[in-house]
Amino acid sequence: MLRQRFYVIYFTLAILFGVISCVPKATVVTDLSLGQDGKIHFNSPNHSTFKKLFKGGSNEQTTISGILRLPKTSSQNIPAAVILHGVAGVKDKHFNTANELRDIGIAAFVVDSQSPRGVDTVGAAIRKISYSMRVSDAYAALKLLSTHPRIDKNRIALMGFSRGGGIALLSTSEKIRDSLVSGDLRFAAYAVYYPSCVYQIDQSVKTTGTPILMLLGEKDNITPAQKAIDYAQRLRSSGADVKIVVCKGAHHSFDNPALSSKLMNYPALSDYSKCSHKYLQLQEDGTWLCSWMDKNVNNQSDLGNFMADCEVKGGGKIGDPDKARAESVKEYKAFLKKVFNLL
Which of 3, 44, 94, 251 has minimal Cβ neighbours within 10 Å of its Cβ? Predict the structure, then answer.
């Protein structure tokens, strides 16, 4: 009887592991020369800090993914946009934006930087995924899209939401671009919703020179509009072309159609409305200047200690009570149409 039980257990496990071993692994692509769309797995240099990113030559790679949606038109040389999510990860609202882009003839690539890394909470995203990793992801997506036979590599924009917006603004650094891509490949424009502006490029840093659109919420207390407005002025001092649209009555995440006419508390994020004067500036050597303490820091995870005196934990609010989203959609569509000469 014991021997029979042993064989039953043995063959059950063999079948189980046999089935598991037959599950196909995701195919990682290095180019899109076959004209692929849908879900795509690709590698990104996993630079944990900007000091490592600027040194280059890292052999460390991580596999991430994205959903590429092409316009229904059969046209060639179409423009495209890479979409970067916030710390809550990829949501339906990002695909709403992707569909809006497709409607005006722009391909959309929604990049997932979190779930492929095993991160599924806001707290884990803040702790485990650095800005340098996500900047690397953005440029890896740009390089990949530039190989697609239907996409015009000179007309690829970068869109970002919340932390993704902050990533996009850091990506305007010419030194970052030059460290991650070769030749003259660059993003043709940047359109960002309520960007997290805690981490900024220093005003002495040369930018890529391509136009930037900031869509801000007037009453956003998670990523306050005033901090973004001040950042825009510093970017302009570096020669950047920045347009600012402050959407009346809008709070954080006002782009989400599900939050139309609603205002909700979002305890996973804090109220930073009293922290507008605090930000870290990325220096040429990859370290961060803590401007209000006048010292350099190497570890951006130390930020929590610097913000503690002005942060109101669990006090973040999200929503679009005044229905500002519709205005913002018109603004970014008009911006991209102009940049891509789709008028």
Answer: 3
